[in-house]
Amino acid sequence: MLLRRGWLLATAESCTGGWLAKRLTDVPGSSAWFERGFVSYANAAKVEMLGVREQTLLEHGAVSAATVREMAEGALARSHADVAVAISGVAGPDGGTPEKPVGLVWIAWALRGEPPQAEQYQFGGDRAAVRLQAVDAALRGLVKRLEP
């Protein structure tokens, strides 16, 4: 779909640690449409690499719609990509709170020239299962947004 449009893709990942980029680059010929990936696990990396505002992190936290939107926008701004996907979540087994439980994941998709769209997910299972489900949801969301 990206190749047909002549578009490039960038990723911005936190809890998935590059797993989305790995899945994309498992596809032979992906260099024709996958431009780059950012793994911004720490908040400082989100700020430094992607331009996420410190105020956004203070007000909303790393696992939020606001943060993944800024991550996706930052990936577009710091690449030659036409579309970006950003993921941030609580993969577990630790780190969950009543407000942001283990399995909570936010994903955003941004197309150049359009406002980013973010969706919230609540996945079950262990750390690997949460991360795998997040990658799958990110890919499904990308395909949905690229369909005519």
Polypeptide structure, described:
This protein has helices at residues 2-5, 19-25, 43-50, 54-60, 65-77, 127-146, and strands at residues 9-13, 34-39, 83-89, 104-111, 117-122. The protein has 148 residues and is of the alpha/beta class. It has a 5-stranded mixed β-sheet, with helices on both faces.
Structure keywords:
148 residues, globular, alpha/beta
Brief sketch in words of this structure:
The protein is 40% helix and 22% strand.
Name the poorly predicted regions.
none
Structure summary, number of beta strands: 5
Identify the overall geometry.
globular
Distance between the termini: 10 Å
Topology:
Blueprint: H1 2-5, E1 9-13, H2 19-25, E2 34-39, H3 43-50, H4 54-60, H5 65-77, E3 83-89, E4 104-111, E5 117-122, H6 127-146
Parallel strand pairs: 1-2, 1-3
Antiparallel strand pairs: 3-4, 4-5
